[in-house]
Amino acid sequence: MSSVEAEDVMSVAATWAAAGEQVAIATVTETWGSSPRPAGSQMAVTKSGRMAGSVSGGCIEGAVADAAMKTIDTGAPQLLDFGITNERAWEVGLACGGKLKVFVEKVS
């Protein structure tokens, strides 16, 4: 998974969609406390499992990718809410605890 800028993620997603891939875009909408990626960070996910960009790291990206697959299947957007205490932060990839919200939508 690459850490590309948001504009590049959209470009990659558009290229994949033009090639016939089913694609979802995940965008960090809000952060509190420690978050590896700022609001506006994006990740594109295809039905075939390709990914570009980053919304967090750790198992949060896995959860976002799973949600993206569901959004691709159903067409229904999702707002995901992740929060973690400092004690469990490293387990899920938030370096010092914190919260973030990620909006997932299908590219049409």
Structure description:
This protein has helices spanning 6-18, 58-74, 89-92; strands at residues 23-33, 42-46, 51-53, 78-84, 98-107. With 108 residues, the protein is α+β, with helices and mostly antiparallel strands.
Pick out its properties.
alpha+beta; 5-stranded antiparallel sheet; 3 helices; 5 strands; 31% helix
> Strands of the largest sheet, in order across it?
3-2-1-5-4
Which structural category fits the helices and strands?
alpha+beta
What is the overall silhouette? globular
Helix content: 25-40%
Distance between the termini: 23 Å
Query: Would you list the SSEs in sequence order as H and E?
Result: HEEEHEHE
Largest sheet data: 5 strands, antiparallel
Number of extended strands: 5
Number of domains: 1
Poorly predicted sequence stretches spanning 5 or more consecutive residues: none
Number of H/I helices = 3
Q: What do the pLDDT scores average to?
A: 85
- Proportion of β residues? 25-35%
The Cα radius of gyration reads 13 Å
Short characterization:
The protein is α+β, with helices and mostly antiparallel strands and 108 residues long. Helix content is 31%, strand content 33%.
Tell me the layout of helices and strands.
Elements: H1 6-18, E1 23-33, E2 42-46, E3 51-53, H2 58-74, E4 78-84, H3 89-92, E5 98-107
Antiparallel strand pairs: 1-2, 1-5, 2-3, 4-5
